[in-house]
Write a structure and sequence with these properties.
heterodimer, A: alpha+beta, Translation Initiation Factor IF3, four-stranded mixed beta sheet, B: mainly alpha, two-stranded antiparallel sheet, 16 helices, about 5% strand, globular
Chain lengths: ~70, ~375
């Protein structure tokens, strides 16, 4: 049974809030996993870049709604 | 095409965009745009405001095709790469205000961040206090963001909302070409509603086709690479992430080299084109603008690109820029090469106060508890 991820809903938020919310979640839950939902390619790229620079693995899933689910694991 | 598009989405994207802007802006100056103003998002918004008669400062009136080009280039890229997404509803009125105050600050400095970097690349050292002010404004905005500042979420809107800014961009181009003269002066000569400067910066412009092409190219590549001259500073201060900053550095280096090649580089403080030497108000004007950009989520160029990919909130910021620039001139607050205007400093201080108030008070509302129905209330009372 995989661990229940901490969920960050960053849909509709301007830069750099998706990154800030994800960073806060990473601080609260340093071993992961974290699931981030964003609705723009820009937020997807920014959150992915920040997480990868911090040493996390990022798996991106494009949802049928046009949104993206990012699964962040240590 | 797809290889180039992939490259634009990579870490090279901002650098390529910076190089393209750094090349095209000095070339536009060579082709007729004002000195060190190959591209200036704030100044060009001000010129558009003047051409539409929203202010009557005769030397700064022209429908600059670069800016509609920004919107339409971004629109095309967003359509092509399936990133066009109509959205809006994130504190629209506040975004309009932020756009207005950003323009007012920019009018005190005489330029947006793009022009600040381009002025530096032309050898204009008065840009240095402006860029220092920009960094201070971004840092202040970040302090609010760290405390939980938010303009709230945007939501998906009908297609018509997303297409409005591209449609306005087309409208500006039509007015540029048609230049209707419906009015009559007291002497009976045709005048307005579209005004073009006969002298001054507004009269200096590259051929329409060149300006529009440059705008379209920049809009296209910047949509793909997310180029942002304020995000560059923000991400570096906040995360030590040089991704966007590398684009700004590429812009400065390329524009400096092209200016040197074209004989447009002149190192100094005094007598620089469309700039003044009051360092205090160069700093403060840009601090106001930097704060407003950071609170809105991006530099003025980025707001134009976002408005092209369907972001109506960014569209309101763009309209705020045009409106604010008009206000700055009408309120005698826009600087000239002689220095700040009589009401420039007071408007800057007022703008800073309003933006700080926005930074302190705007928080995302916590989701409220679901409202109980009258039956539930009654049932609880009788329990």
């Amino acid at each position: 049974m995989p661990e229940e991820p901490k969920v960050v809903d960053a849909r509709g938020l301007s830069c750099p809030q998706p990154v800030l919310l994800t960073r806060n979640a990473m601080a609260e839950c340093p071993s992961g996993p974290i699931e981030v939902i964003v609705d723009t390619g820009t937020s997807r790229d920014n959150v992915s870049r920040m997480a990868q620079r911090a040493g996390w693995c990022v798996a991106v899933e494009a949802l049928p709604t046009g949104e993206f689910r990012l699964r962040l694991t240590k | 095409m797809s290889a180039f598009a992939k490259l634009l989405s990579s870490r090279w994207g901002p650098i390529i965009t910076g190089c393209i802007v750094g090349l095209l802006a000095p070339v536009l100056v060579k082709l007729g745009n004002p000195g060190n103003m190959g591209i200036c998002v704030a100044c060009f918004s001000r010129d558009i405001a003047g051409a539409l008669g929203l202010h009557r400062a005769a030397p700064v009136q022209y429908l600059r095709p670069e800016l509609p080009g920004f919107i339409l280039g971004s629109f095309l890229a967003a359509l092509l790469f399936r990133e066009f997404r109509p959205r809006g509803g994130s504190a629209p009125l506040i975004r309009l205000l932020l756009g207005m105050f950003a323009a007012m600050g920019a009018m005190v400095f005489l330029g947006c961040p793009w022009r600040a970097y381009l002025r530096l690349a032309g050898g204009d050292l008065t840009a240095v206090p402006g860029i220092a002010g920009l960094i201070a404004g971004v840092a202040l905005g970040l302090a609010f963001l760290r405390q939980g500042y938010s303009l709230g979420r945007s939501y998906t809107t009908p297609f018509a909302v997303g297409i409005t800014m591209p449609a306005i961009a087309v409208g500006i181009l039509v007015l540029l070409l048609a230049a209707p003269q419906f009015g009559r002066t007291a002497e009976g000569a045709p005048t307005g509603p579209i005004f073009f400067s006969q002298s001054g910066p507004g009269s200096q412009h590259a051929p329409i086709a060149a300006s529009l092409a440059a705008g379209l190219v920049i809009g296209f590549v910047a949509q793909r690479s997310r180029f942002c001259t304020v995000g560059a500073l923000r991400d570096f201060i906040l995360l030590r992430d040089p991704h966007l900053l590398s684009g700004v550095l590429a812009l400065i280096v390329t524009a400096s080299a092209v200016n040197l090649l074209l004989g447009q580089f002149r190192l100094g403080v005094v007598g620089q084109p469309i700039a003044h030497t009051n360092h205090l108000w160069n700093f403060a004007g840009m601090a106001l603008a930097g704060l407003a950009y950071t609170l809105a989520g991006g530099c003025p160029g980025r707001e134009f690109f976002l408005s092209g990919e369907g972001d109506a909130d960014a569209g309101l910021f763009v309209l705020g820029l045009i409106l604010g620039a008009a206000f700055a001139h009408n309120f005698n607050a826009a600087s000239s090469p002689a220095g700040p205007a009589p009401y420039g400093p007071i408007i800057t201080v007022f703008g800073l106060a309003v933006c700080i108030l926005i930074g302190l008070t705007m928080r995302e509302r916590r989701p409220q508890r679901p409202r109980r129905s009258p039956r539930e209330v009654l049932e609880e009372e009788h329990a």
